[in-house]
Write a structure and sequence with these properties.
The chain has 18 helices and 15 strands. The chain has 542 residues and is an alpha/beta fold. The strands form 3 sheets. The protein has a 6-stranded antiparallel beta sheet with strand order 2-1-4-5-6-7. A 6-stranded mixed beta sheet has the order 8-12-13-3-14-15, with helices on both faces. The protein has a 3-stranded antiparallel beta sheet with strand order 9-10-11. Helix 10 crosses helix 11, helix 12 crosses helix 14 and helix 14 runs parallel beside helix 15. The two termini are 23 Å apart.
Length: 542
Amino acid sequence: MITTINIKNIGIIDNLSIDLNQGFNVLTGETGAGKTLIIDSLGIISGGRFSKEMIRKGENHSYIEACIYMPKNEIAIDGNIIVSREIYSNGRNMCKINGRLVTVNELKEFMKKVIDIHGQNDNQTLLDKNSHIAYLDSFIGEEVKKLKSDYRELYNRYQEVQNLLKMNYGDDKEKQRRLDLLHYQLNEIEVANLKLGEDEKLEEQRKIMLNSEKIAENLNISDNALSNGAIDGINEAIRALEKIETIDEKYAEKLSELKSSYYEVQEIARDINAMKEDIYFDEEERNEIETRLDLIFSLKRKYGNSVEEILAYKDELEKEIEQIENIDEYNNKLKKEIKELQTKMTDLSMKMDKIRQVYAKQLSEKINVELQDLEMKNAKFNCKVEFNENNEFNKNGLNNVEFLIATNVGDEEKPLIKIASGGEMSRIMLGIKSVLSDVDKVPVLIFDEIDTGISGKAAKAVGTKIKNIAKNHQVLCVTHLASIAAKGDYNYYISKEVENNKTKTQVKQLNEKETIEEIARIASGDITDVTIEHAMELRKLA
């Protein structure tokens, strides 16, 4: 259950904290006070969409935090879980579960096990027959869950193999066009006869050739300096030190060092002289290097950023050519796998169909009982299960499920979208929720203005139905009807006030006297002795 929700900077909500209770929590108040914003906030913290226009004017972020108590969970030993979501006007989004950062999808996956929100949008979902099979399978539960999981695994592979077949050059012309291109590319790379590291060596040679004049000039200067001055100077210094080496040991040491330097300088001079002889400028050779580098650059532009990548691409070309040239064999393997998958999926689909047929009748019977209680006494609900057209596999098997209803005696069953009014849709949804709540493990159910389009006995029946659901779930319900508000275990009044030229939402948990007065206000708009007496009667009946 949700024990506390804190909301900051959502619409006209400034900084709001609500302590909730187990059972039937009713939210009432004047239009525009912020009731829907509270429900929207619960939707946002459940991973729902958020528009930056929802951020309170003058603020740069919104924050929603909920404390959830779940006795059996793997996140917190004491059962308390803090979930928060902070959204900034620049689009930055921060979600946390017990202090751990999570993605919006991770938040959504966690919260869908905690909260189920039903509002007017859910009526639209109910009108979409593609969603009906999900309601039925939810009602069936574990008996179909494992079969559906096994089927989905096969179905995902089935789609994957079908896509592989589509990609495998469906006709001969396409296959030949692809082969021609691959062979052209392969030939272009093979003719180039690339060698690893070749481009680096060529670049080095090119650099030397482009700078050959400068290199030759400076090598000549170095050679002349060494040959005509440095070596002779060192030689003369050696002869001078030889004359005094016996006088003191330090002169002998320097003589030894100088002789070593002499030999090193001689070696360097010979090397520079040899380098000088190697420097030459061959225009034809330079053109060859330039042409080769241009070819390598062209291949890099087409097939990879380096010679290594080009050669790796060459290997891929050879593999694809081999695969295409043997495509018939490969496709036959895929077609064989498809047939095997179809056989297995058909078997699982037939098993799911048998289960769905049985439970569809049970679901129809249970919902018809609920509709009787909800003052739709002449309505007949039917959960119709049949094989889809052409027996084409979909993610749920071979079944199509559609909810049909006849609202009056003698009427023909028709799809909900063609027959149900807004008030009827709300009651049908509540009937389905009532049935599913017996098997539903989601602890928190939220009903946002489910009383739309109903009054009188129907409203009283809706209130009774929600009250029964609240025996096993925590329920939050926004309502404008006194007969529903009267059945609340805990009643909250949502109001707004202006402070410092800004409107903000306030919430107050009502005591019994205040609850009676609020029921009276909802019933007639005025709080008088008569309306108070009526409210007390409604409360007593609840």
